[in-house]
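Page 42, continued from yesterday. The earlier attempt failed because a stray header line got pasted into the input along with the sequence. Redoing it now with the clean sequence only.
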Amino acid sequence: MQGGFYDYEKKYRDESTELCIPCDLDQEIQDEIKALAIASYSALCCTGMARVDFLVDADTEQVFVSEINTIPGFTPISMYPKLWEASGIPVGEMLEMLVELAEQRHRMRRELRTDFSDFR
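This time it went through. Structure tokens are written below.
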């Protein structure tokens, strides 16, 4: 997107807004973004799904983490499922992975000890 803000009008109504997958960035910047996405996700102890958004300064090519969205959209225009599909993972397979991650997290939480009466 050139200039301005990615507001409601541009996101949902402006037909000139284009989602480019894959992005038109040098491989070095893409690699930096991937590394920052993983580091950001890990630093915040995220689990399951999340989408890390970035801003890139057009003049300096400096990369900034914009936000981490832990509940990304699943609508027909949402980026999250489109990004997974572009990486070679169809939506159905992605959903199976998310269910498996949720089941793992549930098992781990059940195994947590929350009763400390034995320690008295």
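Notes: Helices lie at 8-13, 27-43, 79-86, 91-111.
Reminder to self: strip header lines before submitting.
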